[in-house]
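job 3f2a | input accepted
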Amino acid sequence: MAEKTRYSDAELEEFRAISMEKLQLAERDYEKLKSSIMNTDGNDTDDTSPTHKVFEEGANTMSKEETTRLAARQLKFIQNLQAALVRIENKTYGICRETGKLIPAERLRAVPHATLSIEAKQGKK
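job 3f2a | predicted structure (125 res):
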């Protein structure tokens, strides 16, 4: 029996649904992070606090920096999911970019934006 070289349209549709669901959640989380960074929720006391405490300002800065890092990471995740959707459209989804073989469906269900098989990722082509 010949080795499978691409996923069927039905399988690609399953991966599209998984990717779309993860993308919607990721976009929602990204918007929350962005809102937190820009302080649009309006629940802070910066304009009502009579004094500024140095430690609180330092903690706020560290928190904002961490939130910014999380937002950047979330944006990269969103971009990777969008790229996966393009590969699904092109019917090239699930093909390891190192080995050219199919990435196992179980891996793609867990990490729908994967472009490497576990073997390639670990350097064991």
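job 3f2a | The CA atoms of residues 7 and 94 lie 7 Å apart.
job 3f2a | closed
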